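Need a sequence for this fold. Nothing fancy.
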């Protein structure tokens, strides 16, 4: 459309004709602007709130959003390998969400309604997709039901876009395999550096960081949400163990396993947490832990002034010692920002049993190996169909199919776990040791100093939070002297999610560090 000729003279037109042309030109301009807004709308870095606003204003549909992400996956994923497989029903789910919104169905009021989400491939989906933990040993297995958190996401109207890649068996097959690698998915890559994405929820972090999905779900036993989020400049939320269901998740340890969101913003992570937290009859731990969930949910704690009055602890040794001077300077600026926003910083604190924490990995490994064998055998036995029915079967599968599993990476953790025989004296001593570390270390530090959170750069605090089942949120903090992204972790005692949200959101809004990678 357009005017192909200019009139010979404005004076040759009647007043009516002139007004008609002006009106027509105005209409064409307005329609053109609307077309540009619709067709030129950028979904990169879009937030959950912006998605819902776009739906409300009829700027786009769930189908169009899903189509965008599918195209980005086709374009980017061959390089980054953050997505293991896409859901063949994603577009039909999008159409269903669009219909529900057009009919004003009650479900469409959920903040995640019509929002595409990636699920880490250790979480069961009772659909056309596989659930394999990245391993060929579970390819073709049939799960009895959706994982508990997947059920909650579906009930909220979220679109399950696909399965995110991960470190195979959540990094519990071998210590020698590269972080972010799996037999099925290959080697995941950091979109900022092309290098280590960190694991095991590597694909969840890669995909969100590179804008291949709106939000994602990861799992953590020790560092597997916090570390990938740190490396990929995204927000990772490790909830209190048991706050979110682990039912239907390929396990390592019911004592330490946690399911949480990986997103680009704190608010998006909180919207996801509000949906997935809560009681699941298939995970008894959620019944007790549900007492921590505040009336009215978690979104109410997204306060820009959330830092005001918060008591934040700084333990420099060991968490600040391994950073370069440039990185340390950035962290110091952030600490000043926290102070300016009203937080009270208690600097140079010490964890009472720091030396013991330095060797706590031995006790953790002792407990995890036994817990893994018990829990993974229970998971495998419950499958409707599977190539393997036990950890011993998985070991045999790997030996029989070395090319498929790249057995040169080894399976020594599998073999060590298979050699355990339940929770015996050594495991009980390890569990008792870690419980004492929690009580006399982190818990004592927090209570004695009346802290709302411990603040640490990168994900180096993950083991302390892991062995105690404590929550932590990591927020983008910048780029180190080597050009690698990093974040700040805010960790607290069990059930302290409301305070952590206020602190993390207040820091994020004061700094707004998050930037997309240049792909």
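Here you go.
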């Amino acid at each position: 459309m357009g005017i192909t000729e200019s009139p010979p003279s404005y004076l040759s037109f009647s007043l009516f004709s002139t007004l008609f042309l002006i009106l027509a030109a105005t209409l064409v301009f307005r329609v053109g602007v609307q077309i540009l807004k619709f067709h030129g709308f950028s979904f990169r870095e879009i937030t959950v709130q912006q998605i819902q606003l776009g739906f409300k204003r009829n700027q786009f549909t769930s189908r169009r959003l899903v189509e965008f992400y599918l195209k980005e996956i086709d374009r980017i994923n061959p390089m980054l390998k953050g997505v293991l497989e896409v859901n063949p029903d994603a577009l039909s789910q999008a159409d269903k969400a669009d219909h529900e919104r057009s009919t004003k169905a009650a479900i469409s009021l959920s903040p995640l309604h019509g929002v595409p989400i990636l699920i880490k491939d250790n979480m069961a989906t009772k659909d056309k997709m596989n659930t394999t933990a990245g391993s060929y040993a579970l390819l073709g297995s049939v799960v009895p039901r959706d994982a508990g958190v997947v059920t909650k996401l579906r009930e909220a109207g979220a679109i399950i876009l696909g399965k995110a890649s991960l470190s195979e068996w959540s990094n519990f097959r071998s210590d020698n395999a590269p972080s972010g690698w799996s037999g099925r998915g290959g080697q995941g890559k950091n979109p900022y550096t092309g290098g280590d994405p960190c694991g095991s929820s590597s694909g969840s972090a890669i995909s969100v960081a590179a804008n291949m999905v709106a939000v994602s779900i990861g799992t953590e036993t020790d560092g597997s949400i916090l570390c990938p989020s740190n490396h990929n400049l995204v927000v990772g939320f490790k909830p209190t163990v048991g706050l979110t269901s682990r039912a239907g998740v390929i396990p390592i340890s019911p004592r330490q396993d946690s399911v949480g969101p990986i997103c680009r913003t704190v608010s998006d992570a909180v919207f996801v947490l509000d949906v997935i937290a809560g009681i699941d009859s298939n995970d008894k731990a959620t019944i007790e832990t549900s007492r921590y969930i505040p009336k009215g949910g978690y979104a109410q704690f997204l306060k820009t002034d959330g830092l005001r009055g918060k008591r934040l602890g700084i333990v420099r040794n060991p968490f600040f010692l391994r950073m370069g001077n440039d990185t340390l300077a950035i962290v110091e600026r952030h600490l000043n920002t926290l102070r300016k926003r009203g937080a009270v910083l208690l600097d140079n604190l010490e964890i009472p049993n720091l030396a013991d924490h330095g060797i706590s990995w031995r006790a953790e490994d002792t407990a995890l190996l036994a817990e893994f064998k018990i829990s993974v055998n229970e998971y495998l036995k419950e499958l409707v169909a599977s190539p393997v029915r036990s950890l011993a079967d998985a070991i045999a599968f790997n030996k029989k199919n070395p090319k498929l599993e790249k057995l040169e990476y080894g399976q020594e953790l599998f073999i060590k776990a298979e050699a355990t025989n339940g929770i015996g004296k050594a495991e009980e001593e390890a569990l008792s040791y870690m419980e004492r570390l929690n009580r006399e270390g982190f818990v004592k530090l927090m209570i004695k100093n009346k802290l709302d959170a411990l603040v640490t750069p990168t994900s180096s605090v993950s083991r302390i939070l892991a062995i105690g089942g404590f929550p932590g949120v990591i927020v983008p903090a910048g780029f180190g002297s080597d050009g690698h992204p990093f974040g700040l972790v805010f960790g607290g005692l069990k059930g302290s999610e409301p305070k952590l949200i206020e602190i993390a959101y207040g820091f994020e809004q004061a700094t707004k560090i998050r930037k997309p990678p240049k792909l």
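For context: The chain has a mean pLDDT of 92.
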